[in-house]
Amino acid sequence: MSRRILITTADDFGASAEVNEAVVQACREGVLRFASLMAEAPAAEAAAEAARALPGLGVGVHLVLCETSPAAWGLRLAADAQARRELEGRLTAQVERALSFGIKPTHLDSHFNAHVHPAAFPIVLRLARRFAVPRVRWPEGELGPSLAYSRAGGLRQALLAGTYGALGLASRWRAGGVSLTRAFGMLRSGMMTEDYALWLLRRLPEGTTEMYFHPSLEPAPEAGLPTPSHRSAAELRTLLSPRVRQTLREEGIELLAAAR
User: Are 235 and 190 in contact, with CB atoms under 8 Å apart?
Assistant: First the structure.
């Protein structure tokens, strides 16, 4: 049987003290091995300092291309040549800021997965090559297991997966030597609960798959629900779960470790 390798990542590292604390706890006590740094976020420098004390944590850059409404942003980007010209400088500045903190990025991904937009993706690949970043996140393959887990919100999930799949047809062929890592987490962002994570692990395909989370100690509006930012204490509990660790062993899934 071919190997199954899992990458576990926490997004929004540096967004707040509560996120930073959750990332540290999930790395020290749980199965978290990577985090994606929002290099220009308020707590980014503190996140980088915390990462230096965690040799088991690999840190990439969580590029921010848009703050809200990725669909509207994508349409504007397609129509606005000036915005496209400015985008490379904006993204380069974020990677360079992470480097200034002493971070050697292990990967690139983005807020809302906006980096897969055909106008943005070639820029991200150029940055990966320029700064010797070995892999870039690629959201795909989650629709089947997610719908099998629950049909709730199925139309939304199908539309979201279909949209990103169509973007992939226009972009993926340009990868040119940069590893594109299949990633699960987009369709239930903020709701990567223990039960859902266990469901995915038992159905993990062969090869390398990333599962990404938004752990936080921020109070949720209701118990078990994510904040509007998708950050969730429930996702921290998933990363700390003994059942998740046990399932990794039982399924023979290799947890990729960060090389520092």
Answer: yes
Q: How far apart are CA 168 and CA 193, in angstroms?
A: 27
Identity of residue 196: Y
The whole-chain average pLDDT of the chain stands at: 88
> If you ran DSSP here, which 8-state letter would residue 189 be given?
T
CA atoms of 208 and 254, how far apart (whole Å)? 9
pLDDT of the residue at 143:
86
pTM over 0.70: yes
Q: Note whether 116 and 171 are within 8 A (CB).
A: yes
Is residue 260, in this structure, part of any structural domain at all?
A: no
Residue 163 confidence (pLDDT): 59
Q: Which of 29-43, 135-149, 192-206 has the lowest mean pLDDT?
A: 135-149
What is the spatial distance between Cα 9 and Cα 12, in angstroms, rounded to a whole number?
10
Mean pLDDT for 226-245 is 90
For β-strands 135-139 and 4-13, DSSP reports them as: unpaired
Residues of the domain holding 122: 4-255
Separation between Cα atoms, residue 6 and residue 225, nearest integer Å: 25
In the chain, % helix, strand, coil (3-state, to 5) comes to 45, 20, 35
- Residue 86 maps to a domain: yes
Backbone angles phi, psi at 34, to 5 degrees: -140, 155
